[in-house]
Design brief:
Elements: H1 9-13, E1 20-33, E2 38-53, E3 58-62, H2 69-76, E4 84-89, E5 92-93, H3 99-105, E6 109-112, H4 126-137, H5 142-155, H6 172-184, E7 190-194, H7 202-219, E8 222-226, H8 230-236, E9 239-244, E10 247-253, H9 263-271, E11 321-324, E12 327-329, H10 334-337
The protein binds adenosine-5'-triphosphate (ATP).
Subcellular location: Cell inner membrane
GO cellular component, one term: plasma membrane
Main location: membrane
Amino acid sequence: MSPQPSVNTAAVAADSGALVQISGLQKHFPIVRGLMGREVGRVRAVEDLTFSLKAGEVLGLVGESGSGKTTAGRSLLRLVEPTGGSIRFDGTEVTALDTGAMRRFRRHMQMIFQDPYASLNPRKRVRSILGTAIDLHLPCSRSERDDRIAAILEKVGLPADAMNRFPHEFSGGQRQRIGIARALSVEPRFVVADEPVSALDVSVQAQVINLLQDLRRDMNLAMLFISHDLSVVRYLSDRVMVMYLGRVMEILPVASLTRPRHPYTRALLSASPEPDPDHKRDRILLKSDLPSPANPPSGCVFRTRCLHATAACAAAIPVLTEVAPGHLAACDRLTELA
Ligand SMILES: Nc1ncnc2c1ncn2[C@@H]1O[C@H](COP(=O)(O)OP(=O)(O)OP(=O)(O)O)[C@@H](O)[C@H]1O
């Protein structure tokens, strides 16, 4: 049975002027058994993801491990092929592009990876790492290409002669700067940054976060910023999207993090070490471990861990509904819990 739509499309469609518009995005991984590779089930990693992003806007994406953040980020750049749904970028339906057109379109939508060690080819000099993308998307003469590489290196705080060196000659923070430079070298308008500082020493995390903040302003970049760290998300984001078991539970302006509406967001915030004197949050509500996305609960997927759930929560998937301007939540008990 296909899942019922769970988004108040009117609330989402009302967000005109969006650069990126994601509707009903799904990513299922088949579970196969036996020599014939028979499909015996599906991991529903992302289910019915709907949100939009304006130029220059940063949307933080949070949720506990396994909630589908990475899969969502990769699916919307088509680094993994979505199972269903729509990805619109500045009027283009990205899911309809063929392989060649998609390769060219990547210029507009880039990814910054978590692990700068794993994402840079150790056998290539920085010139070649950055130059490959430039050759594909912005072909130019050799000297123009070097000028472009020097300019982007400078933008991320590295000297121009860094282009002559190999990744192993740099520290972790510098390598992440190279990863950021690679993503930005083709002048994208939208970037997915997947835990871009979590592999770095705490001492250099703030420098890289500040760099992202500066670049976002200078380049008017829209960004989906995936992180476990709520303090980082608060600092960098305009809005925050909370995912649980592949579904969006709440999307709220960062200032509203002191007044979350969804029980899951409240639980997530109460588990965060940050003090928050403005709001008496629910203390940890999570009664058990995350259920398997191969066998999600019926109705509200969060209900099996929610202390406020009633029998009715098993009956229908809650609709993501606007509860205040720019603030959407998917819980059928919002009125009672307010
Ligand atoms: N290639 C894959 N094949 C099968 N299942 C997968 C695959 N990639 C991810 N999953 C599953 O999809 C679900 C969501 O995973 P995902 O990595 O997107 O979550 P996440 O929120 O990013 O977690 P983390 O914060 O730990 O990175 C998990 O149950 C994961 O095991």
